[in-house]
């Protein structure tokens, strides 16, 4: 067992973990932050995307011990301080960018990472960036639209609803 | 001006807030105190005889609580099939046993052999490694045609062949169809494959079994589209647990698309094992495990003939299909290639003579059952492809040929049993032509050609039978249960409402859309109404969500229950207002006496219903809660026209979807935003089938596509923005909301449009390619061009 200390959603946590404990297991089982989802076992689906030191990471590809000393943000840390939805979360709701909600945390975390580096991405850039996030419900239409809207672009020309 | 509340409005989805903040509660988020973990040891061969399973070493491994094998399930029921098809000769289908854990033989890669229950998943997995298996591998039946041949390996030795049934529909019409084809001016023939797919909801299946010794009650938390159906099947047929001692909960479920309808071995196992060890048991599928244990979809091989007279009127259709059942009969499997497929073979057209033959085949593969559309995509694909081929052979416009043969008068009795109540296929085609900008296509093709690319345009129509299902009719067709739906509307003393529905939401947004209906009827604010679903301990009964039935059937039950509420509330109001009940009107959440200014508010009536000082006790019981069951009198028939425009790179064979337009008639619409979202998702799955997805087995029955590395899921950069419309509405005539259902249309209607467009692109480049099987991958397209 190794002791790890990290900051998760602004709070410092210290826990003993086994060397092979994945970050997904650590977040879901140790911290009970169950918003980070596991949709595959080959790092393809992106339902587990979190931010580690500001970078989007698939939490299933990382051991908890590797996050020692890191700043970690999960979907549970994306709302505004008053509890209201953050800009990207709000855009997903406004534009019906989610259905079953299972891929959604990963989508929001990926979108946030994209917009940090590229504040006004084109449709093509968004679709390209989301290569590592699979959604089976929405057909991506409203996800792409929501991300464009979250970046302040006018989406009224994109087919309604 | 669009409405801002009630039926026809698009309020933001209330469930989104929890999903967007990580507060959703999916089955894998549930841990029960004292929980153990289960790992299934599964067959790695397609077919084999189990000579020996030695668990003695494994049992000594750390953390192991107990190891179960098929032996533990001797005398326990197998997984039941919910639909019995009668064959052409009046005989019932062959129905082999489907044990929870393999008994004597393994019949597909992934067939569970043993289950290790341990304190942690890691310990369970490690112990499974220590189980010694002696399995004698047998030759496997994989290809359907070969499986029906003499000397083929038998999946089930006791049946004597791999034929489940040989079904003819309508058998009495066969002679007339043969005759019409013989005498036709033109016959177009097409042989095609509708490939095997995996539904792949993003949430893998999970099951948690719990047992309370104190009251002898079992609880199963499961990723299901229909918890009551699981309670009924598992309780009555597998484990023998009476319904009042069995609770099934399906909390937030991360997508279903059909594959979470069925009752699975893992659900029965964790419930069974929790009772045996007196501790909760949890199983979470890995994605690879999902690929080898979730029921698959499609997998038909078909020959279709379309006969036309000299004026290009359709005169007959004859089809022969081999349909793969896999190794066992999954819950609804036999119905998919028959009643959900043969009954739709008329499509949107008036073809007087139709005969459908389906041979269902057992193979050493994962069981196949309903996947989004279920039978209807298979019917639509072959019909719309053969019409396109006929148009090319005859040198006529494919849209004109379709229009000429459209059904235009309703109700329309098809020659394949069903009666279409309403529709306007010319209206959706008109709308589609406008959306697809057909006039601009020539210029777009020119622009593509200037870049060295080919461009193709494809169109098709579809019709489906939804709102499953009229119970009397499906009973005649072989369903072993009626398909009612129930709703309870509980009005609380302060006027808020809980609606308990047997429908289940796993992405469809019922928590938002259903209150729109009740709020419209009562004239109160939607925020006063909550939807409760997914728990057999709360909801009286439910057949669940599939076959685009939630609003048409579950919503109708909710309307009926709300009508009862209104009737009783009016009685209470008439007492409070000292007026005749006949004079009471309900408007904007207020009961008033017609022609007067006397009124009483909704909240006053609801309060009076529960805690009255002044109540007509001799005439009326207190309380305001009503339950209704609804059974539809017919299916609903959503229909529409779809168009796809592709660009094809002749250098690589890669096909790109440039434009996609869908004009649907879903009848009345409750929430246009949600309806469009349903269509978008269906389109992506249909495009995925057409261009990307394939569940592949090798000749020995090894599953080659068991992860997202090998199974090509549609990604954001594989699809365009879609253009969708549902303004051409002909309301359903037989349900109170006039709704038809929208969940499956996109997946049903899109594959033929894509392939028709690919063929059009190839032909425009001078390639004489008449058909290409799905998925039209770069390799296949390139091979077809150079074939």
Q: Are there runs of chain A of 5+ residues with pLDDT below 50, and where?
A: none
Q: Can you give the mean pLDDT of chain B?
A: 97
Largest sheet entry of chain B: 7 strands, mixed
Query: Count the strands of chain B?
Result: 28
Widest β-sheet, arrangement of strands of chain A: 2-1-5-3-4
Describe what this molecule looks like in 3D.
The complex is a heterodimer of chains A (161) and B (787). Chain A has 161 residues and is an alpha+beta fold. Chain A folds into two domains: 2-76, Roll (Ubiquitin-like (UB roll)), CATH 3.10.20.30; 87-150, [2Fe-2S]-binding domain (DNA polymerase, domain 1), CATH 1.10.150. Chain A is built from five helices and five strands; from the N terminus they run E-E-H-E-E-E-H-H-H-H. A five-stranded mixed sheet of chain A has the order 2-1-5-3-4, with helices on one face. In chain A, a hairpin with a 2-residue loop joins strand 1 and strand 2. The longest helix of chain A is centred in the C-terminal third of the chain and has 14 residues, at 104-117. Chain B has 787 residues and is of the alpha+beta class. Chain B has three domains: 31-138 and 202-255 and 260-293, Aldehyde Oxidoreductase, domain 3; 297-469 and 634-785, Aldehyde oxidase/xanthine dehydrogenase, molybdopterin binding domain (Aldehyde Oxidoreductase, domain 4, 2-Layer Sandwich), CATH 3.30.365.10; 484-630, Aldehyde oxidase/xanthine dehydrogenase, molybdopterin binding domain (Aldehyde Oxidoreductase, domain 4). Chain B has 19 helices and 28 strands. The chains are: A alpha+beta (161), B alpha+beta (787). At the A-B interface, helix 2, helix 3, helix 4 and helix 5 of A face helix 1 and helix 17 of B.
Please describe the structure with a list of short key phrases separated by commas or semicolons.
heterodimer, A: about 160 residues, alpha+beta, Ubiquitin-like (UB roll), DNA polymerase, domain 1, 2 domains, 5-stranded mixed beta sheet, 5 helices, about 15% strand, B: about 775 residues, Aldehyde Oxidoreductase, domain 3, Aldehyde Oxidoreductase, domain 4, 7-stranded mixed beta sheet, about 25% helix, globular
